[in-house]
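Field: COMPLEX_INPUT
Field: COMPONENT_COUNT = two
Field: RESIDUE_TOTAL = 521
Field: MODE = joint
Values follow.
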Amino acid sequence: MTAAVDTGQTTTIHGDRVSLLRVLGPAHVWALGVGIVLVGEFTGWNFSADKGGALAALIVCWIVGLLYTSVAMIDSEVTSTVAAAGGQYAQAKHIVGPLMAFNVALFLVFAYTMLEVSDAILLGDTIVAKAGVEGLTHNSFIAATIVVLAWLNYRGVLMTLNVNFVITAIAYVSIVILFFSVSPWTQGAVLKLNELVTPGNALPYGWIGVIAAFQFGIWYYLGIEGTTQAAEEVRSPARSLPYGTMAGMITLLIAAAMTWYVCASLMPWEYLGITYYPLWDAGKLTGSPLLENLLFIATLLAALASANGCINDAARAWFSLGRDRYLPSWFSAVHPKYRTPYRSILFLLPIALAFAFIADLNQAITFSILSGVLQYTFMSINIMMFRRKWPLGTIRRGYTHPFHPLPAIVLFCLCMVTFFAIFLGFGSQLIAMTVFYFLISLWFHFYRYKFVRRGDQFSMPWPKPQGY
Amino acid sequence: MWMGLSYVCWGISVVLALWMLYDWFKVDTTYSEDVLTSSREGELEAVSEKHRI
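Field: COMPLEX_OUTPUT
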């Protein structure tokens, strides 16, 4: 291949090198983060009502919102400095060490692939539920979702995230339309919050129910940290990543509050806690066919946007592992025309399909949440080490988060509560995943690490950390 | 209609999967492995960042 230079952009083809394309801006970062997460408003968060009642779902909405605000702030600071594909993986590699980085990359791949699987199952099930045709199964819709989105990702990151921006915006606007359509300022006309949530049924299982609700409260915001995977493809990482991530978090906090208010005011907590389609059901309960169809389409679009972002992020994490030889370097190939990690996308495609066909939604969701919370726990430790090794003023940061170390402490404590909540509901899966990560760590330490070119993996031009 | 849509989904999935496999084969046989795996982390930062605070 001849050497080529893309003018204007910071596209990298140095000599005969082929790199990911730097074409994204803050809006794409927003679309990636919110796109992955927004499906959680359409399904997932409401299972927290089953665990602890409608009020518990609201309490965890705010407390988990605090957890994710900490995640977004911490992530923005570190990523604006470690701008590389792989996101938290690259952060862990530079700040903690290779074994942590390997585990973090696996957390990322598991979290996003399982979320992609959940999205595809949700989309298939939603269409089957709408159709109501005997003999119609969700398999074809699942296959089409995963393959079409993988194809889109294969063809280029700009189109992928342009599509994500449009469909995420439509899904988001549908929540806003629903909210204003039910006269939220007037109780009794459509909404009946004071009848459905009473002092007698607000917390049916007491405060232990609130703790248990954390497990599904995560769904209000799960995946916002995925914005960092775009670090190597944004034109200005130091500016775009903090803007996109923080704007995304604000967007989601508003969406979560509106979603809870409308759904809790239309459905009793016993039903809200078990339905797979809280917002679609809310649309039906308004009695408006227009709202019902709008929320049906929005549910599909939210699932598509989430799966799309997950394919993007999982592939970048896998690609980064290959590039550092933590996995065979074969995975680090970049498509010379589309500039995407095409082998990683193709490798993860059949895995996602297999899980989507054999796993059920609850299992897939639980594995995704578990991997996500493991990652957040790492982030709280990571930022402490980052600030200690490279204090403010020693390296350039695109964003400096306030109140350090309070966000890190809050994040760590809330992660522990969430682990306990997961243990209450899915203890065996938690133990199984912990054993898996332990065994894979042994494999990496005793076998795989000898293939790694140790000097090459630390690429940031930073000064030596303090104390070294 | 829904059953028809289901068949269309299978068709699209097969066509796009085959296209990706074809393109994968074409790229891998056209370019050397060294070129395809030549991406390096942090290359841009190494050029642009001076770390003068």
